[in-house]
Design goal:
The protein is α/β, with parallel strands linked by helices and 259 residues long. It has one domain: 3-Layer(aba) Sandwich (Rossmann fold), CATH 3.40.50. Helices cover 31% and strands 23% of the residues. It contains 8 helices and 10 strands. It has helices at 47-54, 77-82, 100-104, 125-138, 156-170, 186-201, 213-219, 242-250, and strands spanning 9-18, 21-31, 36-40, 62-67, 70-72, 85-88, 174-178, 206-209, 222-227, 230-235. Strand 7, helix 6 (186-201) and strand 8 form a beta-alpha-beta unit. Bound molecules: adenosine-5'-triphosphate (ATP). InterPro entries: AAA+_ATPase (IPR003593), ABC_carbohydrate_import_ATPase (IPR050107), ABC_transporter-like_ATP-bd (IPR003439), P-loop_NTPase (IPR027417).
């Protein structure tokens, strides 16, 4: 994988303070086209703060974020979404009582043509259902039979699948996944990992936060090791073992020099 091209998503010198706590301390990050970059680090290392900054959920105090080489400023998650960056948080941000299709389009509902673009135009349910069905089937999620099924009736893995499919449907440039397999069993995790690889093969690069080293080593092209609010190093999973990665992230072993 060539790293000479301009990164799709880049962070330079991000600083984020919460009172006396410095969650991000001159943090850098790079994500290139066609790759999955895993972000690993101990609890409290600042991984969530990094992805929140890149997805508009927090505004950094210093530093810059570049999308395809151009500086961007995200004041809200809507700003980042408008630029094609979709984030799936552990909480999934779904309405359990609503259908799969309604959840896929939550906050960006399609409406039928109407008088002067009035907000009172009727929802175009048929189109939203069709697009949802297409997106889920493209990603091989046809175990979900009924697009009108309430999300609360789905298994944890299926919900995660819908959340990732929603991100893939609208995240044209980058998808950020926060612990996507944390609450899942072995079989469901496997399906979600396959889905992640599927999304990458469709040309969408992915940032993956995970504490699960086997999952990280299975899907990541590069691993960003985060420690004390900054990027400690970036390693190729082919060159290191999981114990090496854990030792770097905890400080038990010196990290390789080049970041
Ligand atoms: N909203 C907040 N207010 C105050 N402190 C915060 C806030 N968010 C994060 N922090 C602090 O910033 C530091 C980094 O937190 P962050 O959640 O980014 O780490 P993390 O690597 O994602 O941790 P974990 O793996 O436990 O989720 C921690 O010390 C945390 O307590």
């Amino acid at each position: 994988m060539t790293q000479s091209s301009t990164p799709i998503l880049q962070a330079r010198g991000l600083v984020k303070r919460y009172g006396r706590v410095t969650a991000l301390d001159q943090c850098d990050f790079d994500l290139h086209a066609g790759e999955i970059v895993a972000v690993i680090g101990d609890n409290g290392a600042g991984k969530s703060s990094l992805i929140k900054a890149m997805s508009g959920a927090v505004v950094p105090d210093e530093g810059e974020i570049l999308l395809e080489g151009k500086p961007v400023r995200f004041n809200t998650p809507t700003d980042a979404r408008a630029e094609g960056i979709e984030t799936v948080y552990q909480t999934l941000a779904m309405s359990p009582a609503l259908s799969i299709a309604d959840n896929m389009f939550m906050g960006r509902e399609l409406r039928k043509p109407g008088w002067r673009g009035s907000v009172l135009r009727q929802l175009d349910r048929a189109r939203m259902e069709q697009i949802s069905r297409d997106k889920l089937s493209e990603l091989g999620l046809m175990t979900i039979q009924n697009i009108n099924q309430a999300v609360e009736t789905l298994s944890g893995g299926q919900r995660q699948g819908v959340a990732v499919a929603r991100a893939a449907a609208f995240g044209s440039k980058v998808i950020i996944l926060d612990e996507p397999t944390a609450a899942l069993g072995v079989k469901e995790s496997r399906r979600v990992l396959e889905l992640i690889l599927d999304v990458r093969s469709r040309g969408i690069p992915i940032v993956l936060i995970s504490h699960n080293m086997p999952h990280v080593f299975e899907v990541a092209d590069r691993i960003h090791v985060h420690r004390l609010g900054k990027r400690l190093c970036v390693i190729d999973p082919k060159d290191y073992t999981m114990s090496d990665a854990v030792a770097f992230m905890t400080g038990a072993k010196d990290a390789p020099l080049a970041a």
